[in-house]
Amino acid sequence: MTSVDSLFSLKVKVAVVTGAIGLLGRQHCGALATAGANVVVADLDHDSCRTFATELTSSTHNKALGVCVDITKPDSVRRLRDETLREYRSIDILVNNAAINDMFENPGSALELSKFENYPLDLWQRSLDVNVTGTFLCSQIIGTEMARAGSGSIINIASTYGIVAPDQSIYRRPDGTQTFFKSAAYPVTKGAVISLTTFLAAYWGRSGVRVNALSPGGVENSQDEYFIGNYSARTPLGRMARTTDYRGAIVFLASDASAYMTGANLVVDGGWTAW
């Protein structure tokens, strides 16, 4: 009988993680490496990728590789695939984690610019390019290699906001003033990621490639106290997520523990979407 521990083992597996230098990207890499995988740390900053890959190798004793990639450019994604194959000869896991969220350079104009009526087209397009097209390109270029090999697990990082609409009230100060509005760009792109997940699961199922989404809730990361309080009060578990709260889910979706799971959206949100 197969042991439970062996089901979750990623020993000798090769995992590519995009957006690997970000807050959760580092956690995804660490979780996969701890489970035994050789991790490819992929992000825009080459030096940061190499440095973090060295840290992973030192802490887990599994070989990690740092690769610079711009997921919106097909040639860059192909280089990521080719460098990974040269180093490891195979790709077993792809975590499409890279994404952008709304950032306004001038906080004074954030409230007006974030209103749907005023939201800038260039910010909308940028979100589509990174969050949707980037996920598409990585899945197409790296997933095709998995399908050729006859196995693989693709994990698309979505969001609770790809399932339900943003609650604009959590961005409201105690005095009732609104700091900014959550725009349509992030929810729309994350909804598209979930839809792409189901498409690919059906398309590549017979090729042995499983494709699932992970929808995390909000992570506490030095936000204003009023926001943390608003978010926590809106969540059945009464808190925002810790950065480590998604490590188990990533390993589960990457490993044989989820061998009969594809086309699913694993929601890990403290109950946010339960009410």
Number of helices: 9
Q: Poorly predicted ranges (pLDDT <50, ≥5 residues)?
A: none
- Count every beta strand, where a strand is a DSSP E run of 2 or more residues: 7
pLDDT averaged residue by residue: 96
CATH C-level: Alpha Beta
Domain tally: 1
CATH homologous superfamily grouping: NAD(P)-binding Rossmann-like Domain
What does this structure look like?
The chain has 275 residues and is an alpha/beta fold. The protein has one domain: 3-Layer(aba) Sandwich (Rossmann fold), CATH 3.40.50. Helix content is 44%, strand content 13%. It is built from nine helices and seven strands. It has a seven-stranded parallel β-sheet with strand order 3-2-1-4-5-6-7, sandwiched between helices. Helix 2 crosses helix 9. The chain is globular and about 55 Å long. The model has no long low-confidence stretch (mean pLDDT 96).
What descriptive keywords fit this protein?
single chain; 275 residues; alpha/beta; Rossmann fold; seven-stranded parallel sheet; 7 strands
Brief overview, please?
The chain is α/β, with parallel strands linked by helices and 275 residues long. The chain has helices spanning 4-8, 23-34, 46-60, 74-88, 107-114, 121-149, 185-204, 225-233, 247-254, and strands at residues 14-18, 38-43, 65-68, 93-96, 152-157, 209-216, 265-268. It has one domain (4-268): NAD(P)-binding Rossmann-like Domain (Rossmann fold, 3-Layer(aba) Sandwich).
